[in-house]
Amino acid sequence: MSIELRDTDVIWRNAKLATMNPAIKNIDGESHYGMLEQHDLIVRDEKILAILPTDSVPANQCKVIDAEQRLITPGLIDCHTHLVFGGNRASEWEQRLNGVSYKEISAKGGGINSTVKATRNSSAQLLESASQKRLNALMAEGVTTIEMKSGYGLDLANEEKQLKVVRALAQKNPIEISPTLLSAHAVPPEYKHNPDAYIDLVCDTILPTLWQKQLFEAVDVFCETVGFTLDQTKRLFATAKRLNIPVKGHVEQLSNLGGSELVAEYQGLSVDHIEHLDEKGIEAISRSGTVAVLLPGAFYFLRETQRPPIALLRQYGVPMAISTDFNPGTSPFASLRLIMNMACVQFGLTPEEAWQGVTIYAAQALGRADSHGQLAAGFIADFIVWDVHNPVDILYELGHNPLVYRVYHGEITHRDDLNGFN
After folding, report:
1. Phi/psi of residue 179, each to 5°?
2. What is the per-residue pLDDT for 61?
3. Angle between helices 112-121 and 156-172 (to 10 degrees)
4. Are strands 10-18 and 35-44 parallel, antiparallel or unpaired?
């Protein structure tokens, strides 16, 4: 391939590239992270222009960055978070560890209702300040794309407040944010005895109003015995479909209601949690192309024992993403690397599957499969330079951060030159 380089192009040279491109095979015909050596990664503006053998690329007057045999991977994608909320629930966690039941805590105003109350009582400025700290931790570990949900406001004004904070974070940070409407997260206290009326409010007012204001990209729901029924979920999805809005679902976390099949029926982006997913549901999502999002942080924090059906998901070829599920009640972990480790240790994923789960399949779960999650020509130039030699090192040894450069849309947004990186 011959290309004409411009002076403004940037060549990243002398790196090991874990492209995550499934079309790139090793000598045994396996993808193995889509590894390439002795290849240059060429960036033009915000995109990857090409990946070519080093000896075929004339540098001309381009800027050449010597990666000194370090590893370059796609930027990490955290495809399921509840990052914007008020307060925290550390005291509740302590109570649970001291033997107090969740039912008792909830009866005293704890649980999700305490987060709803704190979020409603927090100003947008306070929510943004608290969320920025969480986001900083994720970006420092290599996250370049993230999803953020509403769902702690549970009325029009406070759901809008949450989503406007998400928008503000997107405008002020070098990160791409995919906002999701999760008004059907829980029944708010004022609708405790009439959840159908709350779904009326979501479908008739909250969803169309905030969609018109372009505050979100997709609609989510907690379809569960302690959340919303299949019928209520179907009404929400039907409303979204009329407006041509993609859907996804928190489903099969605590029981099997058939929520995954319903998400598949509406060609949903993802089914998330899915510890209790059965083969019928897996067949459905395999046909619809829906991504299974695994959330080992919540599994760990809640000390669950029912693992997602990994073997069946593999058997049916269902793409598996993984995510932090960052939230105050069940997964307060602002480290996607930790979650990758958990996915391997707790759920039995291979390290390569974990990497696929935070790159190509996480991108697919956010409707960005054609632009994010790979090092490939035409893709957004979001990538990380790590001071390691193999992808497994990133999730194997935790406690220190090997990130050297974080590149977002072609621009270096974080650098650590302590090791003489030029």
Report:
1. -85, 140
2. 81
3. 70
4. antiparallel
H or E stretch covering 414? strand 411-415
Q: Per-residue pLDDT tens for 36-52?
A: 999 999 999 999 999 99
Residues in the annotated binding site for Fe(3+):
80, 82, 250, 325
The answer to whether residue 420 scores a pLDDT higher than 50 is no
Average pLDDT (327-349) is 97
Mean pLDDT of 163-179: 98
Euclidean distance between CA atoms 291 and 287, whole angstroms: 11
Residues facing 380 on adjacent strands: 47
The pLDDT value recorded for residue 417 is: 57
What is the model's pLDDT at position 1?
A: 58
Q: Cβ distance 250 to 275 under 8 Å?
A: no
pLDDT of the residue at 328: 97
- CATH T-level topology, domain 76-366: TIM Barrel (3.20.20)
Residues forming a β-bridge with 180: 149, 218
**Listed residue (358, 372, 361, 277) closest to 325, CA to CA:** 358
Annotated binding site: 80, 82, 89, 152, 185, 250, 253, 325, 327, 329-330
Radius of gyration of the chain (CA): 22
Positive/negative CA dihedral, 156, 157, 161, 164: positive
CA dihedral of 393, 396, 400, 405, whole degrees rounded to 10 = 30
Q: Which residues are annotated as a binding site for N-formimidoyl-L-glutamate?
A: 152, 327, 329
Instruction: Tell me if the domain spanning 10-74+374-415 has CATH number 2.30.40.10.
Output: yes
Segments of the chain assigned to CATH 2.30.40.10 = 10-74+374-415
Binding site for Zn(2+): what residues are annotated? 80, 82, 250, 325
DSSP state of 352: H
Over the stretch 142-153, which tens digit does the pLDDT of each residue have? Answer: 999 999 999 999
CATH 3.20.20.140 in the chain: give the residue spans.
76-366
Residue list for the binding site for 4-imidazolone-5-propanoate: 89, 152, 185, 253, 330
- 159 touches 181 (CB < 8 A): yes
pLDDT greater than 60 at residue 418:
no
pLDDT tens digits for range 122-135: 999 999 999 999 99
